[in-house]
Design brief:
16 helices, aminotransferase, alpha/beta, 41% helix
Length: 408
């Protein structure tokens, strides 16, 4: 069964907005449209539940129940236990807290960690700062032509057995090549290392089955996966309890509280259940059945198939031009539908011209300073980035290609 685009777009009020609907939206990598189910839950919480949760009176009990529901249902969809899902203000903040836990875990030990130069800075800079405490930081470097990470290079970094953690992206927000998380996690595990995966640029294209991936931590952003502005961290039980807790001493026994040092945003946590509502509605509309994890996998696969098909004409068009450099894989199936190109001029004015022509996209470095430098891209010029989602239509891609013809 093919994706029912009419149904999908009906779930996103943005497509009926007199403001948002004036442009074809290609800045999904910066933040997706929220689905109707999230908006409804957020409105309900602020209207009927906005009290301190978990107290013994009706509104408070309902507030706590909705927060618990979000954690429970997202965990089931990603095939992990409920306490392994925690929330924070952003993925950058969650990664920072996790890095401080690893700092305490490794401090004083003869240990090394591996980071990449393919990452967004949120999953690179905080790990590199562990060198301040004597932890060796090794860089898994991308190919300067393709932007790819070679597993053989990782094997050499792991060879002496000193590496205790490998931090890498499921896919980069500019290179967009999808890394084989399961294989990398298995390599690290065999060498005695844990794995932390930045899934921010991948999860919008299908929520992951974290158990199948085999990583120890997986982080992504709800506001890029059709939800509210929250960071979501999946931290597996064994690793999470091994790390020194970063929150109040009396919360150390509860995994989803153990690494949450600040009070969470109750309303936005509750609204995250709307993401699961949407996945379930999508599954029902497309005949996808099974338990929550099976439905999640089925929706993931259908989203990916739709995105691969819709973005292929854009990649073909860009590959046929000789006045720009297409970053990352040429083939849609090997990448997320986030497409960055380096131009012979600054990218931001081109994005501005596209904005005046009915296309919403961006230009700059997108906090991917390290991968762009490794690829030899002039940081002052940046890249033009156009990013689709499963709700992007073929007509919108055609409009983008026509607008690029005029702007370039």
């Amino acid at each position: 069964m093919a994706l029912d685009l009419e149904f999908v777009r009906s779930q996103f009020p943005a497509f009926d907005s007199p403001v948002l609907s004036t442009h074809a939206f290609f800045e999904n990598a910066g933040g997706s449209y929220p689905c109707r189910q999230v908006i409804d839950r957020l409105t309900r919480f602020y209207t009927h539940r906005k009290v301190q949760p978990y107290a013994p009176y009706p509104a408070s009990e309902l507030a706590g129940e909705e927060m618990d529901e979000a954690r429970r249902r997202l965990a089931a969809m990603m095939n992990v236990a409920g306490p392994e899902v925690s929330f924070g203000p952003s993925t950058s903040a969650n990664t920072y807290v996790l890095a401080q836990a690893v700092r305490g875990w490794l401090k004083g030990k003869t240990a090394a960690i591996v980071v990449t130069n393919q990452d967004h800075e949120a999953n690179s800079g905080v790990w590199r700062r562990l060198a301040d405490d004597g932890i060796e930081v090794r860089e898994w470097q991308i190919d300067p032509q393709t932007g790819s990470l070679d597993p053989a290079d990782l094997a050499r970094l792991l060879d002496d057995g000193r590496v205790r953690l490998v931090a890498f992206p499921h896919c980069s927000n500019v290179v967009a090549e999808i890394n084989d998380v399961a294989m990398i996690a298995a390599m690290a595990r065999a060498a005695g290392a844990r794995t932390v995966v930045d899934g921010v640029s991948y999860a919008p294209h299908g929520f992951p089955d974290v158990a199948a991936l085999g990583c120890d931590a997986y982080l992504f952003s709800a506001y890029k996966t059709f939800g509210p502005h929250q960071g979501i961290m999946v931290l597996r039980q064994e690793f999470g309890m091994e790390l020194p807790g970063q929150a109040h001493f009396f919360n150390q026994a509860v995994l989803y509280k153990r690494h949450t040092p600040a009070g969470p945003d109750h309303a936005q946590i509750a609204a995250c259940a709307g993401m699961a509502d949407y996945v379930d509605a999508f599954a029902a509309a497309h005949g996808i059945s099974g338990d929550a994890a099976a439905r999640g996998r089925g929706v993931h696969d259908m989203m990916r198939a739709a995105e691969v098909a819709v973005i292929a004409p854009l990649l073909d068009y860009l590959a046929g031009r000789n006045d720009l450099r297409l970053i990352g894989p040429r083939h849609a199936g090997a990448r997320a539908p986030t497409v960055a190109v380096a131009l012979d001029r600054p990218a931001l004015p081109v994005a501005e011209a596209l904005g005046r022509d009915g296309i919403a996209c961006g230009g700059g470095d997108f906090y991917a300073v390290r991968p762009l430098a490794a690829l030899g891209v002039d940081g002052a010029k940046g890249v033009l980035r156009m990013s689709a989602a499963h709700y992007t239509s073929a007509d919108e891609v055609a409009r983008l290609i026509a607008a690029l013809d005029r702007a370039l």
